[in-house]
Amino acid sequence: MSGNWTYVCGTAELLPGELKNVWDEVTDTPIVVFNLDGAFYALEDRCSHEDYELSPGTFDPAEGSIECLLHGARFDIKDGRPLCPPAYSPVAKFPVKVEEGGIWTRDDRD
């Protein structure tokens, strides 16, 4: 792989309705990757309301959202926008690519 892409897992290891977290060692950023009906999305694994992991929260595939375990803030997994208080700022969204049977993501912020 060229560039700073981080390997997440094989496509068969992340089934629809599941999530997996990974660490971007280049930028030292936690990332959570979601499989929503066969499409993959990645967000920073950090609630924008309070510095807390999103991945232990509830992933709702029907709504396409993740709910933070700490205070119940929910985010759209497709674009990171907040869906309810107490969060008002979006969570960073990252690119995902599927290549050679694997899922890859990266923190592409400058």
From TrEMBL:
The keyword tRNA-binding does not apply. Keywords: 2Fe-2S, Dioxygenase, Iron, Iron-sulfur, Metal-binding, Oxidoreductase. CDD domains: Rieske_RO_ferredoxin (cd03528). GO terms for molecular function: 2 iron, 2 sulfur cluster binding; dioxygenase activity; metal ion binding. InterPro entries: Rieske_2Fe-2S (IPR017941), Rieske_2Fe-2S_sf (IPR036922). The keyword Translocase does not apply. Residues 6-105 form the Rieske domain. SUPFAM superfamilies: ISP domain. This is Benzene 1,2-dioxygenase. The lineage of its organism: Bacteria, Pseudomonadati, Pseudomonadota, Gammaproteobacteria, Lysobacterales.
